[in-house]
Amino acid sequence: LLLADTCLIGAATGCHIACPQWNHQLTLVRRNEGWFFRSPVALQAAGELQTGPIAATPGLRLCGDDFSLSIE
After folding, report:
1. What is the pLDDT of residues 29-61, one digit of tens each?
2. What pTM did the predictor assign?
3. Which has the closest alpha carbon to 68: 29, 34, 32, 21?
4. Is the pLDDT of residue 2 over 90?
């Protein structure tokens, strides 16, 4: 997967990564200091409920109501 600065993940037709079972879209964005996840709903990251940008650091476990992923 090649990215410039944004990756849309979810069920919407315009998403780069199609996840038809998901209820919400997850956005992966690049900033000067690294990659971050954004979501319209709170997510559990590293065992804590978080809102706003979540740093996509190696070893991060990210969970929503209908998905779970890990960053390697």
Report:
1. 999 889 999 999 999 998 899 998 999 999 999
2. 0.86
3. 21
4. no
Give the number of residues written for the chain.
Answer: 72
Return the percent helix, strand and coil in the chain, to nearest 5: 0, 45, 55
Contact 26, 17 (CB under 8 A): no
CA dist 16 to 9, 12, 45, Å? 6, 9, 22
> What residues have CB less than 8 Å from 61, skipping those under 6 apart?
45, 46, 47, 68, 69, 70
